[in-house]
Amino acid sequence: MNFIKKRKNEGFSLIEVLVSIAIVAIALLGLAQLFTYSVMTNSRAERMSSATFLAQQQIDYHRNLTSDELNVLTAGTNDEQIDVNLDGTIDYRRLTTIQMSGVFWEIRVLVFSSEELSTTVADLIGDPQQYGVKADVSTIISR
User: Any idea what the CATH number is for the domain that residue 21 is in?
Assistant: First the structure.
């Protein structure tokens, strides 16, 4: 009985406390790294989703055009700088090419991040993967 009373009155030693703090710190550090990784992954997914939406939006716009309007647009590449959240900063660069082949129009929309604003259109269209294309959507329209 004296042994039980004596054991209840004793506290933790300094070494036990330090080891406990180290274990908790290591666990929290791992959780912090996981949290940082998940924030980065979510941010990347949001950028990809926005770029895909911008490409699909452009495709839908062109599907509603008449044959004459599509023929006018085949003259060159439409190069747009897009500010998605209207904060005054360009977020994306969208390139749209339209080529006519017979009674079909081939439409290709490439969306890049704002880092590619200074890159030439020919370079971006020539090798989009090298410049980190965020969305590359193609379709065929017939009238």
Answer: 3.30.1300.30
Q: Would you say the pTM of this structure is higher than 0.70?
A: yes
Q: Given this model, what pLDDT does residue 101 score?
A: 86
In a domain, 5, yes or no: no
Give the Cα separation of 46 and 100 in Å (integer).
Answer: 33
Quote the radius of gyration of the chain (alpha carbons, Å).
29
**Which band of pLDDT confidence, cut at 50, 70 and 90, is reported for residue 14?**
confident
For residue 47, give its domain range. Answer: 12-142
Q: Is 88 left (phi over 0), alpha (psi -120 to 50) or beta?
A: left
User: What does 114-136 look like in DSSP terms, one character per residue?
Assistant: GGGTTS-HHHHHH-TTTTT-SEE
pLDDT tens per residue, range 45-71: 999 999 999 999 999 999 999 989 999
Domain count, the chain: 1
How far is 26 from 15, CA to CA, in rounded Å? 17
